[in-house]
Design goal:
The chain has about 425 residues and is mostly helical. It is built from 21 helices and no strands. This is TRAP transporter large permease protein.
């Protein structure tokens, strides 16, 4: 049954049918052929109960926050400021790509939005300064993945909603691995560009007074991140309320820089509606599919299969990791999460693992899926911003960063406290 379902999923996706519609079609198929009850009759109630949840209101707020920051030109200012601070390292401007992606990950919550923002700003610089197109574009695609790890993260909100785990604790758990990944990207870039200086282009050193003046451009983003995350961790606001405060802060910042206008705000709201509609269609479609899978007993079938392998808990976890890596080649990341969470997470908890820790491990694997072909979304985003060259160059450029993600996954398996240290310390 699982094999037929997997083939159906890949077949429908290959026809370029929207992911949300594919999930509904698979749900109807499972209901028709495998479920003993006509579950479609409860579809209306299921759609309403899934979407009528206050936790999910945080998603459009965080999307709007990122849209305002991008469209008001704050991204360009942030990139220029970070360029002055990190371009002296081996690799030069490549480090500004990672640093800018890290900064915007701390506000946008979306990997695709982060990658698109940095790519739009950085690509003209790469062509002008003669950087290696593979490493430069690969760093942007990989840096963009930090948007779903460093809080606030839309994917962590969805994970918390589906597993009924604490979103503030998930945010805390993602902070250390997210920063560690960003530093790993910087170290790998520096090592590669030290061994092969031609990859990194020109290293530039700016006068210290210019570097200090550039910090002014970073203060608004840092303050915004501090307010959003601080109010959540202090218990002063829920993630939804903090997201609303963040939107208000972004509007104030845009106004302070003279970048706010009716046209800009209209474009930001329109972009938010499009992205939120896509996310909610996927979440609702996956909820219906998961409901039909549970009724047909497919979740128990998979759990029995994994349990029947006779493996240790660690070996079973390695099998789960391998499943996510393989599925990540073919399935869009948010869909991969919402389809598998109701099946995999109960098994993980049953084996005695912490669901908070597993959520962070899953996000690392999902990050890999964002930059692995054929459906790695960040690859297409960066290639679209390049407007020239081959897609294979972007793919090759991400290989060193995929290795860093694999090492992070191994580190989380070996040392769960990497993710659980902050949530346990601040509980």
């Amino acid at each position: 049954m699982i094999a037929y379902l997997s083939l159906g999923l890949l077949g429908l996706l290959s026809l370029s049918i929207p992911v949300g519609i594919v999930l509904f079609l698979l749900g109807f198929g499972v209901d028709t052929f495998f479920s003993p009850f006509p579950l479609v009759r409860g579809l209306g109630n299921l759609v309403w109960s899934t979407s009528n949840n206050s936790t999910l209101i945080a998603i459009p707020f965080f999307v709007l926050l990122g849209e305002i920051l991008v469209r008001s030109g704050i991204a360009t200012r942030t990139y220029a400021a970070l360029d002055r601070w990190v371009s002296w390292l081996p690799g030069g401007l490549v480090h500004a790509n990672v640093a800018t992606a890290t900064m915007f990950s701390a506000t946008s919550g979306s990997s695709v939005a982060t990658a698109a923002t940095v790519a739009t700003v950085a690509m003209p610089q790469a062509e002008k300064l003669g950087y290696d197109p593979k490493l430069f574009s690969g760093a942007i695609a990989a840096g963009g993945t930090l948007g779903i790890m460093i809080p606030p993260s839309i994917n962590l909100i969805v994970y918390g909603f589906l597993t009924q785990t604490s979103i503030p604790r998930l945010f805390l758990a993602g902070l250390v691995p997210g920063i560690a990944l960003a530093l790993a990207f910087v170290v790998i870039t520096a090592i590669l560009c030290t061994l092969r200086p031609s990859l990194g282009g020109e290293r530039r050193v700016f006068p210290f007074p210019d570097m200090l003046r550039a910090l002014i451009q970073l203060i608004p983003i840092i303050l915004l991140f501090t307010v959003i995350i601080g109010t959540i961790y202090k218990g002063w606001a829920t993630p939804t309320e903090a997201a609303a405060v963040g939107v208000a802060g972004a509007i104030v910042i845009a106004a302070a820089f003279g970048s706010i206008s009716l046209k800009m705000f209209h474009e930001a709201v329109l972009g938010t509606v499009k992205i939120t509609s896509m996310i909610m269609l996927v979440v609702i479609g996956a909820s219906f599919l998961n409901f039909t899978l549970a009724s047909a007993g497919i979740g128990r079938e998979l759990q029995d299969f994994l349990g029947g392998l006779g493996l240790s808990n660690l070996s079973t976890m390695l099998v789960i990791v391998l499943i996510y890596i393989v599925l990540g080649f073919f399935i869009e990341t948010l869909s991969l999460m919402v389809v598998t969470i109701p099946i995999i997470v109960p098994l993980v908890v049953q084996m005695g693992y912490d669901p908070i820790w597993f959520g962070i491990l899953m996000i690392v694997l999902i990050e890999m899926a964002l930059i692995t072909p054929p459906v790695g979304l960040n690859l297409y985003v960066v290639q679209g911003a390049r407007k020239s060259g081959r897609m294979s160059e972007v793919m090759l450029g991400t290989i060193p960063f995929i290795v860093a993600m694999l090492l992070m996954a191994v580190a989380l398996l070996a040392f769960p406290q990497i993710a659980l240290f902050l949530p346990d310390a601040l509980q």
